[in-house]
User: Fold this.
Amino acid sequence: MLTLPTLLGQTALPSAPINFAMTNDSKKYSTKDFWNSRAASFPRFESGDDTYEARMLRLARENGVDFCGKTVLDVGCGSGMYTLRLARMADHVTAVDVSDEMLRLLREDAAAMSITNITTVCSGWDDFSAHERFDVVFASMTPAIESDASREKLMQYAADKVVFMGFSDRMLSNVMQGLHEHYGIAPKIFNNAQDMRTWLDHNGVPYTAIPVTGQWVVAKSREDLVDVCLTTLREYGAEPDQRFVEAHVEAFKDEQGQYVERTDYVIEMIIWQKR
Assistant:
């Protein structure tokens, strides 16, 4: 098992980590409107070789995935935190996301970095279509991969390797823990990594699964943290008292006046060869 150290402000998720299994309405998290509404607060590319995304791509390379000079399909690319790094290594990256606002952020950052080898495609994964196959298909923490058909589609578009990253347990937030207890909420487990392994096993596909544990540490403004807490509680069907939540988050204010959320996670990187 690889354990990554705490990374301040580095996260593969929106600034409020979203548990995609918060409700039974999982399709909500694949809609354009939902992700467009998250775009303004979604984390964007950060430079450096010690960021979360840099470490994860290094882990993929250490386990036999060669991005250099390759064509890459980035499924559910979001704001391009991986896309822009992949583009620095690959010959070309096709970045697919259901949110045109996320893709706008990606193109904006690509232009600022003078990166020109990225094609963006605004499409849900179910509707995505291309004539070509890609050397590497890359999908990180995307709720778009939730059915057997969506998993098979990853294989369909891969010419060589597939890299999939997903959760294998519930996320534990220091901020949300007390609110869950107060409102009688049992956080649900999002096991899309286990679901992927089950599908691969059923289809007789050999793979490498690398568990990764760590903690996202994200500093927010008071307003953003309160909004995240209220939104999360409502997703569980609670009717939160805003004044109670505002008082609750004060315990997480640091000396710089920022509100810091720490979220423990267990994820898996799963790599397999095109059969």
